[in-house]
Design goal:
The chain is mostly beta strands. The chain is built from one helix and ten strands; from the N terminus they run βββαβββββββ.
Amino acid sequence: MDIVSGHCFCNAVRFEVGGPEKFACFCYCESCQRIAGAPVVAWASYEKQSFRVTRGEIRFYQSSPGVTRGQCADCGSSISYENIKRPGDIDLTSTTLDDPGGPTPRAHIWTQNKPSWMFIGDDLPGYEKNVG
């Protein structure tokens, strides 16, 4: 199994996860926009059992019913997302990976929340809410 590593903005948190990713996407949901301060967040999904923090502390909190997000306890970088509907998965923000270009997004999700001024210019499938 390939090991994918990453870190937060301040480098206080480092982590590893078994790769390759199971899925990757661009998310436009309001929660992601607000946590990142950006119109879209790129996520990559991995097996949760292969995820481990190798340095620092991730602060976890429940951002909505059934959803837990993780941030660096020092700089606040958004690192992870877990949903009880997918108990074996952990999603990591692609831009916290040491190679953020590694995971290739396969879809746009929650496009109903996309800012009106933002244009999606690729041929990936888009979903007004979640995939499926």
